[in-house]
Structures are given as C-alpha cells and as structure tokens.
Automatic annotation (TrEMBL):
Gene3D superfamilies: Dihydrodipicolinate Reductase, domain 2, NAD(P)-binding Rossmann-like Domain. One of its GO terms (molecular function) is aspartate-semialdehyde dehydrogenase activity. Residues 5-138 form the Semialdehyde dehydrogenase NAD-binding domain. SUPFAM superfamilies: Glyceraldehyde-3-phosphate dehydrogenase-like, C-terminal domain, NAD(P)-binding Rossmann-fold domains. It comes from Ethanoligenens harbinense (strain DSM 18485 / JCM 12961 / CGMCC 1.5033 / YUAN-3). Belongs to the aspartate-semialdehyde dehydrogenase family. InterPro entries: ASADH-related, Asp_semi-ald_DH_pep-lack, NAD(P)-bd_dom_sf, Semialdehyde_DH_NAD-bd, Semialdhyde_DH_dimer_dom. Keywords: NADP, Oxidoreductase. Its EC number is 1.2.1.11. NCBIfam families: asd_EA (TIGR00978), PRK08664.1 (NF006416). The active site is at 158 (acyl-thioester intermediate), 252 (proton acceptor). One of its GO terms (biological process) is threonine biosynthetic process. It is an enzyme of class 1 (oxidoreductase). This is Aspartate-semialdehyde dehydrogenase.
Length: 360
C-alpha cells in the first residue's frame, strides 16, 4: 500500500488529539502537518496543548516540537505537504463548510469529523461496514467542485456508531420503528471531569441538536445513490431518540427498541450479529475490528469501563437482548465515542477510500 502524508486540521482539540494518538505508528498514514486556529499558529504542539492534553497516552515524541499552522491562513502551505487532511475543527457550520470546500477545491481531499456537510447530497457519510458503496458519489461531487482529486467525505454523529451498526443487519426483517435513548459521555462535548466538575453526580437530559442528528442521519447512511446524490431512505423505519449527557468519561451507550414487519427470533439475531462483516472486514483494513458486533450474555453488560475499548475501541458491544411488549425487541449497546465514533471512524473511512482508489 502507498504511504500517505496527512494533516490534522483542529489538532489541539479532543478529537484532534485522538487522531494524533491513533495515527502513531499507522502502517499507511504519517502525520506531516498539524493545524489549528490562528491563536496557536507558530507554537510547538506540546506548548499549544500544555495543561489540556486529554489523552491517556502521551504526545508522540515526533510531534511534540512540530510547529502548528493556521488552518485558514496557511492553507496553501498545508496542502503542499500532504496527500489529504483529517478535519475536526470547532467553528460555526457555515465556516466549516467554506473551509472544507476550500481544501477540496485545491485538490486536497478532506476526511471530516464535522457535522456541517453531513447532509450535502453529494458528500458521502460513510460507516465502512454499512455503506461503503456511497463512496461512488465522489466523482459527482468532484464534477460539482471542478476538481480532479479533491473531495469531502464525512463520518456520522458519534452516538450513531453503537445502535445503527447493531440495527443495520436486521433491516432484512423489514424494520418499521426504532426508539433509541442514548447516554453520552462527556468527551463527546470535548470535556473532562476536571474541566466540567458540574457534571459529577449529575445527568443533563438535553444535548442541543443531538436528537435531530440521531433521527435523521441513519436514513442517509441507509440511503441510495441516485442521479449523483445520496437520497435518504424513504421507506425506512420511523426513528425517535432521546439523548442525555451522563457523568462518564468515554463511551456512548444506547437503549434500543425496534419493531419489524417480519418478527425475527432472538437466536436468529444473535447469529446475525456474530456473523456480520462489512467492506472494512473484507478488505482487512488496518483499523477494522475483526469482529464488529460483540454480544454479551451477562445481564449487566455492556458497561463503559469493561466494553468501550473492545477491538481497540473500534467494535460495538451489545447485551440484554430480549422481547418487548410494545416493540418486538429491546437491547443495549455501547461504542467508544472518540475512537470509533470520531477519530478512529475517520481513519477507518480514510483507509477504505485509499483501498478503493479514491485517495490516489
């Protein structure tokens, strides 16, 4: 496989830091450029994140002294040194859309962790095990942008990475209704217990914009490519969600209820989850979990401390599958939100696009 030089835009934030730790020693990708806002320009990376390095692993020695660029003002300099960039900036949505398009238009592909472009019709929102085929929309996007190589691809909201993969292989039974209540860790808000002491012994019952994302994004993930655009699933299930912030460092859990036109047996579901593989597993991508969906029979599983780092944080943990009197089934599931849900999911998507030839 070709070796790629990559940049991280938004390198000082929590997701940017996670990109840095996950990309250390990556067999395909080498971090060449780090960029952030104008206030960090010119600083050594170690200096810029002093007192706010959130990861358990230390900063890689190779990156401690690397000088930060201004993601906007130094765009041309950044692009000249990399094959593509990962983008995880904290800006207004319209500013993010403009920035990502600027990079794409100068022929630098953008692997985005941001929500700003998730519903742009010709920008794929890819979970590699579920909708790898959506990458086929990229040539149509390039035509719109007037590029030969540049494009934008985005990953979905981090809370979806638990329950949507668990539901996906059950769609063959004609899924009609889904209710998902998500219990989301504080790292999803870019926080730690030190920076957000108010969350201790507390639960926040509302996360702005999260329920809309959780109800709408699965329909695009399950959508179809038509006339150069991804058209959200129109015959899919009705989805309703409730999203809460809980005092947990990492890991988004979901309590899920689902109904089907053809009611599956519980034994069937367990076997389907065990056997499920996607394009990421077929290609044996470096970051892909060997088994994506793990089911636990213990009544008290999954738990964030036990299960959030299964398969290096890239798999989904599922438990407590049982019948429901109002829906057909209910279960709980868990994924690591800043690994699989954010940076790791972006890296896996980039690996897929490399393997499929979109980043050559």
């Amino acid at each position: 496989m070709k070796q790629y030089k990559v940049g991280i835009i938004g390198a000082t934030g929590m997701v940017g830091q996670r990109f840095i730790t996950l990309l250390e020693g990556h067999p395909w990708f080498t971090v060449e450029v780090l960029a952030a806002s104008a206030r960090s320009k010119g600083k050594a990376y170690e200096e810029a994140v002093a007192g706010r390095w959130f990861m358990k692993k230390p900063i890689p020695e190779t990156l401690k002294a690397k000088t930060l660029y201004d993601a906007e003002a130094d765009l041309d300099t950044i692009v000249s040194q990399v094959d593509f960039v990962f983008c995880a900036v904290n800006m207004k949505k319209e500013e993010i859309r403009a920035l990502e398009e600027k990079y794409a238009k100068v022929e630098c592909p953008v692997i985005s962790n941001n929500s700003a472009n998730r519903f742009t019709p010709d920008i794929p929102m890819i979970v590699p095990e579920i909708n790898a085929d959506h990458a086929a929309v990229i040539p149509f996007q390039r035509k719109r942008l007037g590029t030969k190589r540049g494009f934008i691809a985005v990953k979905s909201n981090c809370s979806l990475q638990s329950y949507v993969p668990a539901l996906h292989p059950l769609r063959a039974f004609g899924m009609t209704r889904v209710l998902a209540c998500t219990y989301q860790a504080i790292s999803g808000a870019g926080k730690t217990f030190e920076s957000w002491p108010e969350i201790l012994d507390n639960v926040v019952p509302y996360i702005g914009g999260e329920e809309e994302k959780s109800e709408q994004e699965p329909l695009k993930i399950w959508g179809k490519l038509q006339n150069g655009a991804i058209v959200p699933e129109s015959d899919g299930p009705s989805i309703t969600t409730q999203c809460l912030r809980v005092p947990v460092s990492d890991g988004h859990m979901a309590a899920v209820f689902a109904s089907f036109a053809q009611k599956p047996e519980l034994k069937q579901i367990l076997q389907i989850w065990k056997d499920f593989k996607g394009r990421a597993q077929e290609l044996q991508l470096p970051s892909a979990p060997k088994q994506f969906l793990h089911y636990f029979t213990e009544n008290d599983r999954p738990q964030t401390r036990l299960d959030r780092e299964i398969e290096n944080g890239m798999a989904v943990s599922i438990g407590r599958l049982r019948p429901d009197s109002q829906y057909d089934i209910k279960f709980v599931c868990l994924s690591h939100n800043t690994i699989r849900g954010a940076a790791g999911g972006g890296i896996l998507m980039a690996e897929l696009l490399c393997a499929e030839g979109y980043l050559d």
